[in-house]
Amino acid sequence: MTTANEAQREYWNRDDARHWVDQQARYDEMLEPFGAAMLDAAGITSGEHVLDVGCGNGVTTRSAARSTVDGRALGVDLSEAMLERARALALKEGVANVSFDADDAQTRQFTPEFDVAISRFGVMFFDDPAAAFANIRSGLRPGGRGAFIVWQALPANEWMAVPGAAILEYVDPPDGDPTAPGPYALADPDRVRSIFDTAGFRDLSIDAFTAPMLVGGRGTLDDATTFMRNSGIARAMLDDKPANLQERAIAAVREALKPHLTDEGVQLGGATWLVTATSS
Predict the structure, then answer these.
(1) pTM over 0.90
(2) Does any domain span residue 245?
(3) How many C-alpha atoms does 84 have within 13 Å on its Cβ side?
(4) Torsion angle of the four alpha carbons 237, 181, 156, 25, in this order, in degrees rounded to the nearest 10
(5) What string of DSSP letters covers 222-244?
(6) Which of 153, 159, 125 is nearest to 228 (CA)?
(7) What is the pLDDT of residue 17?
(8) Which of 110, 224, 254, 270 could covalently link to 139 via disulfide, CB atoms 3.0 to 4.6 Å apart?
(9) Cβ(241)–Cβ(132) under 8 Å?
């Protein structure tokens, strides 16, 4: 018998996912505009209790904890390694009103104790999104708020489309259902509306938010190329291919990124949906 999100639990605790921990500072810098937009939409105030779903290395959880001051923030994620990093960073930064649990937001037994639920790219990986968001809603107090940021479709995201097109000159595109758990599972606003309606949320708003982003954070062209080579999608497309083909594909990625190099690093656009809703 399988459990909910078993494949995701396995993936995020494999060596394949170490990239997210090893490159934590680069990811946090790269994704900072999107986390900031999500936190602004959440409107966290002092004394509130905050749930951060799929918190990863915990940067948005710690930010939420700083905003709530007299309240607290709980980060939940499947990855033990990322949560270990999150706890270490909270201790280093002196953020005391934060905690982190290794758990699945789709199945965790919540009580209605949270004023706000947030997520920066952590809610696209559920086996059953409607069940997951209904369960998240069960952890919100009446009138509680949700603020989640998710990727728009891949073609709208230059930071993936540009290097991805270079790789596809050498390999076939991966098969798969675009609605399956993964980065773009919530890219269709109509699907998001259906999920949130089924989950019992109200006052749903889905707003486009786009921003330039530094691929792999600040650094050189080679830094950005190496960062993309070690990403999960590039590894999935290239790791089983002959070494000489891998080398040619990554050289093509470097050339594709080169026109976008700035003084700070490789800059490409990111496109997201900022989803807000209220617990009924």
Answers:
(1) yes
(2) no
(3) 8
(4) -80
(5) HHHHHHHHTSHHHHHHHTTS-HH
(6) 159
(7) 85
(8) 110
(9) no
